[in-house]
Amino acid sequence: MKKWPIRWDLLLRYRMIEIVALWEGRLTTNHLIQSFGIGRQQASKDINSYLADIAPGNLVYDKHLKGYKPNESFTPKLTSGHADEYLHILSRRDDITVTFDDLDMGFEHTAMIRPVTRNIAPEVLRPLVQAIRDKKRVDICYTSLKDGEFVERIISPHTLVCTPLRWHVRAYCEYARDYRDFVLSRIHGIPDINDNAAQGKQEDTLWNTNAVIELTPDTRLSDKQKAVIEKDYGMVNGTLRIPTNASLVHYLLIAYNIDIHMQKYNPQGQQIVVGNMDELMPYLAY
After folding, report:
1. Where in the chain is the domain with CATH 1.10.10.10?
2. Which residues are within 8 A (CB) of 43 and not within 5 positions of it... i.e. 6 or more apart?
């Protein structure tokens, strides 16, 4: 084990090694190459030095996977082993390569409030990530909030979705014969990967339907109050346009604390409203 402080850039890469190995169940040099813009030789050196200096025996090379997988005795050394860490990386992959959010960078006079991620086990997430990557069907045991009963479902997952309060997987459900959102914390046991997916992302009509949410200041506010809200949200000509897809409209409205029955709130509490609700209603009823 290293006795001296680890350079911050190397620490970030070590943390990535632990997080990806634990939650995806497969680590390759490409994970480091694509995330940090380093060469293959450096990526390989990082993995080897992690195993030599930080956590000997934590990872084993699997020829079938063509990468490293966590040993049965895997113990995080530089991370907490909580799903938040992996899901946070996923949420930033599209727009940032390296994240500093979980590191103590010495800023003492700041505080961040984050919702607690619901209970998610690596054993649940790994098969889903693999199924999405390899376009496979998965058997899951799921508890619906409707009746609280365990049900068996065969799904073809295509995307993990992060919302402010939960994570779910978007998947084709063979029982419903349609696409559904399955909350990760309501999946029990270990998902069983099967053969090729029945349906993919390209057949998910709602997912592939573009939508735009138009947020405006609550009409009951005064002009001066509206100006404050417009500045708060960076609105252009009194409107904030948020591009998304039809299957995510509901979650985005929740994220902005928008209730479609907004008339029961006072204008100072509501602050913003949806300016094109008529266009979005068909996506809120499915």
Report:
1. 8-92
2. 29, 30, 31, 32, 33
Contacts of 265 (CB under 8 A, 6+ apart): 259
> Given this model, what pLDDT does residue 106 score?
42
CATH class, 122-203 region? mainly beta
CATH 2.30.30 domain extents, the chain: 122-203
**Within its chain, how far is the Cα of 260 from the centroid?**
25
CATH fold for domain 8-92: Arc Repressor Mutant, subunit A (1.10.10)
Report field, pTM of the whole predicted structure over 0.70:
yes
* Mean pLDDT, 10 residues at a time, the chain of 286 residues: 71 93 92 92 96 94 92 91 79 43 46 65 88 94 88 95 85 96 93 91 96 93 94 95 95 84 58 88 79
Per DSSP, the three-state class of 111 is coil
Q: How far is 71 from 131, CA to CA, in rounded Å?
A: 21
CB 181 within 8 A of CB 170: yes
